[in-house]
Structure formats: C-alpha cells, structure tokens
Amino acid sequence: MTNSMHVYQSIARAVCDHGVDTMFGLMGDANLFMVDSFVRDCAGRFVPAAHEGSSVLMAMAYAHVSGKVGVATVTHGPALTNCITALTEGVRGHIPMVLLAGDTAGANPRHLQSIDQRELVKSTGAGFEQLRAPETVSMDVARAFYRARVERRPIVLNMPADYMWLEVTHEAKVLDVFTAPGGVARGDILDEAIGMIASARRPLILAGGGAVAAREQLIRLADRLEAPLATTLKAKGLFNGHPYNIDIFGTLSTPAAYELIAQSDCIVCFGTGLHDFTTDHGKLMKGKRIVQVDAEPTAIGGGLHPDAALVADAGLTAETILYWLNEAEIAPSGFTRELDIETLTAHPVGPNKTAEGCINYVHALERLEDALPKDRVLVTDGGRFMTEVWCRISAPDPQSFFGTPNFGSIGLGLQEAIGAGLAVPKRPVVLFIGDGGFMMGGINEFNTAVRLGLDLIVIVANDSAYGAEHIQFLDRQMDPSLTEFHWPSFAGVATSLGGQGIEVHSKAALETAIAALETRKTPVLIELRLDPHDVPRMRT
Q1: Contact 198/325 with Cβ under 8 angstroms?
Q2: Three-state SS across 495-529?
Q3: Of 126, 352, 362, 430, which is least packed with CB atoms within 10 Å of its CB?
Q4: Would the pTM count as exceeding 0.90?
C-alpha cells in the first residue's frame, strides 16, 4: 500500500512501521513537524525532555527494560552536541537505539547551527546513517533500525531540514532477519572446552549480560556439574532463588565469595567480556582454566586470553556441553555440597561511626533493601555511593536493573529512571543517585517525572561532596574542602518541583520516610544526609 505525503510524515510513518509507539526528545526547527505527525497521524506517544541528552538516556533505559529499540529525536547543531555523553554511554553499554537528528539545510552551509554532524557522531562510537533523499526515507529508517539491532549501539539518522516539506510516496520497509538463534559450538575447540570442564574439581559458571536469555540452560549445566553460579554486574539478579547463586563475581563479591572464586579451578564464562572489575584486574583468573562463550566475537580475548574460546550462542552451547557430559557419564564435581550460601552472599555491615546529624549509609541501605517495593526496577547513577547499592540492593532480574556507568559519567540516572518507568508503567522505579549527580542531571528532569505521573522513588546519597575526589585528597593528607559543597535541600527542591521530598538524618527519620512510601501519589525523593568521611569507597 502506498500513499503520498510530506517527508516529515513519511519519517514518522516509517518509525511506526517498526512497531515504535514511544519517542523521547526535544523539538526544534528540523524535527518538530515529524514529532507532530508521529503523535497526530500515528497515535504515538512523545515524551518531551528538558535537555536533549536526557532524551537519549531515557530511550536507552526504555530499550533495556522493554527489550525494544529505543527511539529519540533532537534538532540540529547544539541539540546534537548536547547528546555526546549520552551517545557514548549508549555505545559503551551496547544499547540498541535510534536517534532521529535534524540537520541544517545543505544549501545553507553558513547556518548558525551548522556543524559536521557525521564527524561529531563518529567521535562517540555511535553509527551514522544519512537520509539520502526524500524517496529513500523508508529504506533509510529501516537501515537505521536494522543496524541498531545488529550492532547493538545507538544509530543516528541524519535528517536534513530542507527535505521535510517535500512530497513523497510512502512505502513501508522493514529489514527483518532475526529469525534464527546464534551459532552452535562445534569442533576441536568445543572438545577441548568440554575436557577442561569435565576434569575440573571446582568449576564455576559465570554469566554476563550476553547470557541473560540462557538462564535455564545455565542452571541445568551448573546443577549437573554441581557448580556454583555467579553473574557479572550487568546480569545482576539472573540466578535469583537458586540455592547455589553466589551473586556478583569480582570486586563486588562478598569476602567469602571472593575466596570461593579464588579456590575454583575452572571458570566457564557465558556472555561476558570479562571486564577488569569482573576479574579483579586478572587476579581472580590466575591459575584457572578459562572457557569463554560469547555470540559477539569482539567480546573474546578483550580482557584476558581464555584457554578455550567459543563464538556461539550461550544457551545452545550450555545444552551441547551438558549433552556430551551425560554421554561420557562424567561424574559431578561435588563443589557445591559443602557450600554455606548464606555466608557466601552476606556483605559485612561494620560499625556505625557516622557523625551526629547524619545517617550511616550502609545501615540505611540494609534497611531499604527490605523496605523498598519488591517488584522494583533498580536504576543507579554514577558516584562512589554506587557500588554499595549494587552489592546490597537487589533487582528482580537483569532487565529490571539499569545504570552501570559505562563511560564513567555522573548525572545520567534520573533520565534513565524516567525511560525505565515508561517501559513498565505498572511497576515502581527506584533510583539511587549522588548529590553531585542530582545537581548535574537530576534536578532538570525531576519535574519531567512529576509531569508524567511516574511511580518513582529517588534516593539521594548526599554527602555534600564529590566523593571520589574527596577520598583522593584525604588519601594524600590534603585539604578536601574543594570537593565539598553546601547544596540546597534536595527534599525541598523535590517538593517545590511537584514531588514529595523527605530529609533523613537519623534512623527514626528513615522509618518516617519508609512509612511515607506506602501512601505515595507523586515521585518521592528521600535525601540521605551522609557523613562524607564515613561513606565507603568504591569497590574497584
């Protein structure tokens, strides 16, 4: 079916042809008519952000939680430059999303907002697709969505403003090639890998973000081997409920789990690139046989060189290994028989040395783990507060956890929490963010969450300092005052922006805040007043 329309309408229709019903963004000269058509002609939902970069972050979190390709749109020039950090974060996090970016007219190279947008996008590592001509709209949009899925990164579709009111004939185009699972491992390397696993006396199964769809297959393999299960941070929550789940592997492990990992003799890794924090800069992998399975070839050998590497689907490979172990009647290892999983998963709490007028951060997290809604989506911003959250606050499954700082930036979390909340509107979103991160990126989008009526709980870890820098000054016996700030009351700011703000400076005040969550009707912000000298340092 074909019909005549303007280019801006054809772009909107092409986006809808890919099943998109939600678009994040900020309107400007080059995209406002496309957005209007998306809403009015295609019955789509447009979520306006306060800042262009926020729209990209919202789309990224929406993609992660919903399992769809995220979509955002901005206009040209400074609008796109405002997205650079967010795009880089998306590239590092392997998030499939499409950014529809307007561009100035080619006939006006001296336009005030003209910039080489291709080179700008390339600097982030994101992909770039040019809207080549009015008559190629459907094919160019389809190509952008195809690349976002296959390359697992943001793709920017560049849309010249001077095309928008030209007439075209629209024809739906969708590149759909996702009908077969990833490859099956075979050959001599598979035989070698099975031999290593079969001969192991203390094997351990490690799953990363690339293996979250293979939960049941990995559990069956672990049970057959009598091997404990662990995950990387990005697969947090994957093995919840399993009796031999030792939780996060690496620098975020409990002391007891770290010791258990050190005792293992074979780590079978599925869907993880083995980041330095996962391997503790290689220390945890020394003296062990490493089998690495990943459908993404570039994930192999990036952090360390495995003893056997299989470019293959995680679930199918686990099933293949299990089949041959059974065929060869390999005896189980017995590694899990003496494990005390309660001890292995308990993070030490330590004494309360917090200054008067502040609340102990670790004690507060332990209480919040029990009190926060169990069906939560957990989002974290960046900062020294974050690693304790990752260790002590659980998420129902990997899809319900978002916010690892892939680019090391702060100030991205609240925007991501909004995207996550719109992906699952019937579930509460819990965001942990630092004081610096809230001032940098949270304060300008908190009202967006209020306007959207999201069920959002924001926990601000306010130590009145930039924590990572504060520690460095203290470690060198230097004055840390340059890192310390006298912020406004975040609780007061939240209330003034239409939410509910609660300040917590004692255990009693924390209980009051927890009680208030039961009757929340608007986004709630709980401000934990922390002692900057008593916040644990990052576990790296």
Answers
A1: yes
A2: HHCCCEEEEECCHHHHHHHHHHHCCCCCCEEEEEE
A3: 352
A4: yes
